[in-house]
């Protein structure tokens, strides 16, 4: 295939369709005679006085639309919090806008709205569907007593820039929140909760997805403070915030509820979408197109530089026929990398990964294609999902006299790929299941 870029678009489209939240709900929920079947678990909806919907995350709108298709008129009311592009109007369920990846005042207003909705409208014999996808931690916020909005924003920014992984970031987030780390379940109790989850984290640990508002938290204030110390952030936050964490460690502030707390005994959690579903769909489409395809992993993690060194070595071995893999073939992988931002440029983890791959493979003349995208259509604080390269890319780079190392040093991968017109832009995709990488060797 001379122009694999077009083929890659077809494969990506299929992968994203498979993890579209609307489709995931229809694939996992069925109803007959008011008996709801979620995967293999039955719920008699006649046993509840009212049914409420609360959702948050970049794909929450479409989880709701799928659920509405199933449950329909049985829904009493609810709130969905998502990004502006996914706004909607509904007679029963209200939409609130939040911000991602950095929370803003809209995120705070949304958190207060959800908090007040639970306090005012949910009773003990009600059923609450809680819908959560990636992005929820930023889109919906309500700082715990003793933490103000500006402190919350500052801590969030420091965590995103220091190279911490999503579990570490969410550990800290949960301990400065009045609704994360199971605290939302505390508010809803004793009403029953059915949580539908689309995962954006490796291995899909429920308590870390969106900082687990309805899931028991196995981390503590001590764990959160260790994260701050690990990345030397305890010296970058105000003394009164350090004191807040220390008071939590000393049990002067209540910790998040643990997974074995009684409030979680009546709740059910269902994973309905993750990175592997996207990879399997991509593989199926590629093979339909006649391409021999293998899934390597859905658990990529680490810094783009180190991960790129590993994958570039693999690509070189295949091209030089020193591997058990024989070309032509397509290799797929997923996961999520973490960028430690040292420069002042613009970019994201996927663009930086691909730029590192270009640096490693710039001497390769045989045909290849490599891409990496965020499945939510957003890579870092940019309007691109990611970027792509092939064996001809280095000719463009040399023609424009671009210095790869200087762009990497300044974390400016977006500007680099914009100059050579090799950004991938999908726009918001309605979903978020980490990243999708392709290595095609022909």
List the helices and strands and how they pair.
Layout lengths: L3 H15 L2 H8 E4 L2 E4 L2 E4 L6 E6 L3 H12 L5 E6 L10 E5 L7 H17 L5 E6 L3 H4 L9 H13 L4 H9 L8 H6 L3 E7 L22 H10 L8 H11 L18 E6 L1 H14 L4 E8 L3 H16 L9 E7 L13 H13 L6 E7 L11 E5 L2 H8 L3 H6 L3 H7 L3 E2 L10 E7 L1
Parallel strand pairs: 4-5, 4-7, 5-6, 7-8, 8-9, 10-11
Antiparallel strand pairs: 1-2, 2-3, 11-15, 12-13, 12-15, 13-14
How is this structure best described in words?
- By secondary structure, this protein is of the alpha/beta class.
- It has two domains: 182 residues, Rossmann fold, CATH 3.40.50; 166 residues, glycerate kinase, domain 1 (3-Layer(aba) Sandwich), CATH 3.40.1480.
- Helices cover 38% and strands 19% of the residues.
- It is built from 16 helices and 15 strands.
- A six-stranded parallel beta sheet has the order 6-5-4-7-8-9, sandwiched between helices.
- Helix 3 links the parallel strand 4 and strand 5.
